[in-house]
Amino acid sequence: MNHSLSYYPLRKSLIKQLIFIEENMVELLDLYVASTPIHERDFSFFERYVSEVEKFLSNSEESTYPALAKVFIGSQVALLYEDDGYVDHFTICFPEKSDPTHGYISFLSPVGRQLLLHDLDEKVILSTPSGEISVSIKKIEFKDYQ
User: Fold this and answer.
1) Do residues 28 and 46 touch, judged by C-beta distance below 8 A?
2) I need a labelling partner for 100 at 20 to 30 A (CA). Which of 7, 35, 114, 128 fits?
3) How many CB atoms lie within 10 A of CB 84?
4) The pTM is what?
5) Confidence check: pLDDT of 11 > 90
6) Would you state the pLDDT for residue 122?
7) Which residues, listed in sequence order, are joined to residue 88 by a DSSP beta bridge?
8) In terms of DSSP bridges, do strands 104-106 and 75-81 run parallel, antiparallel, or are they unpaired?
9) Cβ contacts of residue 124 below 8 Å, gap of 6+?
């Protein structure tokens, strides 16, 4: 397998994300504020995301296929629910691609926002309307959904 060709869609997608975020920052901040409860707002959210993507891109050579160790937009994430051992899969996407019925959740949704930038094998306590849920991130794969 030609690893550089495998890596190209991931690299291309991440670069497109950086450009999209830069060009649409005002609209994204409006969406973020509208979808995020006041007590959960973090106005450095997009700066942190851009910084993590840039760090990933600079630390990854184009000739290698890096394993994703962090949840980015475009990641398909396997979550292990700690209480019952159930595994569920979500693809973190931009709001216009969201389709929760098929596992595509916006990075601005409550669950998407809470998963973004977490690490492989990290335990995360998700706050949901029905209470807190303890999950572990068991797998992160790039999903070229565009």
Assistant:
1) yes
2) 7
3) 6
4) 0.82
5) no
6) 97
7) 79
8) unpaired
9) 114, 115, 118, 134, 135, 136, 137
- Reading the block at residue 10, the tokens are 């991931």
Place of tokens 């990075």: 107
Task: Give the start-to-end residue ranges of the domains of the chain.
Answer: 3-142
Tell me if the domain spanning 3-142 has CATH number 3.10.50.30.
Answer: yes
DSSP state of 24: T
Query: Nearest 5°: CA angle at 11, between 145 and 14?
Result: 65
Q: How many CB atoms lie within 10 A of CB 133?
A: 15
- Quick one: which H or E segment has residue 122? none
Which residue type does 127 have? Answer: S
Q: Is 79 buried (19+), middle (13-18) or exposed (0-12) by CB count in 10 A?
A: buried
Q: Quote the tokens at residue 58.
A: 């600079």
Task: List beta partners, residue 76.
Answer: 91, 141
Mean pLDDT, rounded, of the chain: 86
The residue behind tokens 């060009």 is 23
- Classify residue 68 by its DSSP letter: P
pLDDT digits (tens, 9 = 90+) for 12-62: 889 999 999 999 988 888 888 888 778 777 878 889 999 999 998 888 765
Distance CA 126, CA 114 (A): 7
Show the tokens assigned to 109.
Answer: 């949704």
- Mean pLDDT to the nearest integer, 128-139: 92
